[in-house]
Design brief:
Molybdopterin biosynthesis moeA protein, domain 3, 30 strands, 426 residues, alpha+beta, binds magnesium ion, binds adenosine monophosphate, 8 helices, Molybdopterin biosynthesis moea protein, domain 2, 6-stranded mixed beta sheet
Amino acid sequence: MEANTQATGSAAGRLSVLAAQRIVLDHVAPAASETVRLEASLGRVLAEEVRANRDQPPYDVSAMDGFALRAGDLAAIPATLVVVEDIKAGDRPTKTVGPGQCVRIMTGAPIPAGADAVIRVEDTHTLADGRVEISTRVAPGNDIRPRGENMRTGEIVLTPGTEITPGVIGLLATVKRAQVDVVRRPRVAILSTGDELEGLDEPFDPEKIPNSNSYALMAQLQALGIEPVLLGIARDDPEDLARHLKAGLEHDVLLVSGGSSVGVHDFVRPMLATLNVEMHFWRVEMRPGHPVAFGTRNGTLVFGLPGNPVSSMVCFEQFVAPALRRRLGHPRLFRRTATARLTHALGNRPGRTEFVRVVLAPDSAGGLTASSTGNQSSGVLRSMAVANALLVLPASGAQLTAGEMVTVQLLDGTSYQHEPGFEETA
Ligand code: AMP
Ligand code: MG
């Protein structure tokens, strides 16, 4: 199988980003469900169908503060009506509205028998004797919210796979779901590797490389609603690495940063193999991120992410995030893409799909412009930190000029789509 050839790093069968994404997603299924309190369900994905448990509203109610009346009584205007009752939300009417009569009614209060319309208080005039004078006609049904307008008993109001947004929380509260079944969140571990790395809380040494990847990856996970386990730094030493990898493999997903390249101290892939991780690919025709690796052991997904800070983040976006979103039960796995107008020339060497850090801005025509955020070295995290999108340059090696339309992957916001949204021409 092509993927296995890739796992060994053979030159045969170069793997595109889209093909690698498919291999990853073929190894992921949505997790089982668990029950959580409604208050803790924001951002989770519904694992059950939810039906209405009553008609809502339970009876016809007034949409306005005003008067409930018989629309036919306004055939000749101005009309003067006698107020027979006051009804507020939560009251039950006790009187039937007869000809020449009305009730004073508040928003959400039930419409009394006999009345067929509401006129808002602003369109009425209360006379000194307490009667109301009305000079505007209203049609039957005016400003009445019919019973069951929002939902009918037994009707399906939410389906599995729905992301729980504030509006969905409101709907769940409407049907009195104090507890809801949601898809379980995976337990994700992050391990950084490298003798040169200095931990966030370790003493400052100007010659060391600060471990930024663990934290950038942590934040990428948190943005997906996952609180990861930080396993710290493994040294480029087989024993220390094995110990840390074993701990990592106890989780549903393990992200290993660094050590999966071709250096003599890059022990991650051989060590994973020793620990019975089946590798499905290594190396994808992309820039940055070429040395990315993916494997599985039983149900555990293992991503070998390149150590360069931008490569790590870009590979997370292309492979880890879609996998986790599928695991979390989301139907939309991929960052939303858009079309933008390039503000400068841009080229790509042929062979690899390139993800260029850009900033998008609105243009005067209602579209978007895309401009590089600067040095595109995979070690320059600063140009990633200020980017709000990744421009996808096809592997064809096209030379783009200013003004050309390009595809960009949006990094801000929480909107995702069903398809990757870009093509890769080799
Ligand atoms: P590697 O993939 O281990 O060959 O590392 C590639 C580059 O990324 C090297 O310059 C490393 O120093 C750097 N790097 C590796 N891990 C991290 C990390 N956790 N945080 C920041 N930079 C890293
Ligand atoms: Mg390393």
